[in-house]
Amino acid sequence: MNTTADTSATDPPDGSVPNGPFYHGTKADRSAGDLLQPGYRSNFGEREKANFIYLTATMDAAIWGAELAVGEGPGRIYRVEPTGPIEDDPNLTDQKFPGNPTRSYRTRQTLRVVDEVRDWQGHPPEVLEAMLAHVAELKRRGIHAIND
């Protein structure tokens, strides 16, 4: 089933659970009903074991996840449902940007794959190359993902 992003939704101002739909970008090949869980090596920094799994409510952030993921094969984007509480991703929120403009979250619980989004388009090659250079520079400078 093809899915499109709902980019008009915003997070509730009272701090309750944000509005979905939610997406997860990766290179892992999964199917509807599969559970995605934390505990695998991170795609970023020193690739240490990730204590969280990440999700977003914007297609653009999911596309970045799919494009920047480590591994073989094509990037994939899944529509997912969190099975437990989620929180703002501190790697992309108040520590780097005010608020949560990318609507990026993380959880210590599993994410259930609802379906794969097949009709997405990646960033232009020059934009992707610039982001890859930026990620490489962060790694060179020893800046790692917040994992606690």
From TrEMBL:
Region (Disordered): 1-34, 81-104
Keywords: Transferase
Biased composition (Low complexity): 1-14
Any single Pfam family the record assigns to this protein: Arr-ms
Domain Rifampin ADP-ribosyltransferase, residue spans: 22-120
Organism superkingdom: Bacteria
GO molecular function: transferase activity
Protein name: Rifampin ADP-ribosylating transferase
Species assigned in the record: Glaciihabitans tibetensis
